[in-house]
Amino acid sequence: MRLIGLFFVSAFIASAQFADGIATSVNRTVTLTPDEADFAVVAAAGLDVTPQQVTQVFLDAGIASLSLTGTALVQAYDYSTNPPATRTQVLYQFAFTVPAPGLKDATNKLEGLRASPPSSLMSMQYTASLNASQATVDAMRLTLLPQLLADAQKKAQTLAAAAGLKLGAVKGVTESFYGSGSSVASWIGTSQFVGGFSSSSSGTGTQYTFYASVNFTVAAQ
Amino acid sequence: MRQAFFVLIFSGIASAQVSDGISASVNRSVTLTADEAAFQIVVGATLDGTQQQVKQALQAAGLPNPTVVATRLSQDTSSVPVAQVQIVYLGTVTIAAASARDAAKSLETLRAQLPAPLRSLQYSVAFQASQAAIDSMRLTLLPQLVAEAQSKAQSLTAAAGVKLGAIMSISDSQGGAVGGVLSGAPAAYARVGDFSGSGFILAGYPAATNQYTFYLNVLFHTAQ
Lengths: 221, 224
Known about the structure:
The complex is a heterodimer. Helices cover 30% and strands 40% of the residues of chain A. In chain A, the strands form two sheets. In chain A, strands 3-4-2-5-7 form a five-stranded antiparallel beta sheet, with helices on one face. Chain A has a three-stranded antiparallel beta sheet with strand order 1-8-6, sandwiched between helices.
């Protein structure tokens, strides 16, 4: 993530060079209120269990809007015997999003499944991260844009003064933003879970940096 | 190393561009005084806990108006026999560097006796230069950088047998703690907490730095 930030900054440095006029780049980092919780659930089932049956387990638990995002075939080892017994199982990865206030309710439903999983599931684990929705990000962008342009104008003014120039009108503007990513996922699961997915939960977190690069003309003295 | 590589690549791309006129790029690296301390506190709380309760606990510990957001779920493996699910909150607050020691002591006290619904706490502190200090240094350096660029361009025109004209374009930038993502030499940094039961990993190390490089690029017209 640092590299992405560096990429943006370097790109701005590069792009800010040698355009006619007075160029400035500014940025602001904000913490947005997380308004949605993104869940990822991985369930292990036997080869004779269908994806529909696995999905139904979660629907029956009250978890709606579930989407199947991945399937993997893995081999599990049971070390309670010598030599270890092996069994082949299918891992199903699901994702769903609920509004942030629904986090506890959804977690309790999953905890219920974890405490007493149905016979069709061998094991399960889940993770959740809280993120800012696109609407929240867009709203913050609209709030920050005037401030960023004011920052850029102020910065350009000092640059122009130092160079003995007079700041003219805005000639060009570019802007971008990126989320710093959600924190490392922590999986919550049954003890016998066999991993097969390395992905973490989705979402871009709540830390966002908004960038603007403004190019001003040089006014006649 | 990879970051340095990126900087070199982009610097190369940028400097390889040939524009009409005489271009001069100059930079100055300075070490700024770390006048603020950025605290990042990761708190694990029970599922019934609220963001407001976490904020109040941090405020009661003396941290002024911290920003607290829920980030994710985690498993509290210190709770036996069944590992409990907990919500991980991230608190951030920036205070004057001089107050950092007292704030850390307060957090240590809080960590020793966590009130419900808090289950675990760890924190880090990054000492860094404030935006005001960076802006102030920029204002100090800009005239020097402009003069330096002019001098550099002058020598270039002399070597090329042309005459230096007026400024066509100018831009400046700085590298350092830009958005907390660029770091030069890492400043004092520490993470304190109970790692046994939380399995926490901080959301990202604060990329604090007191080393700043200010860049200026100037393009001059050629005069007859």
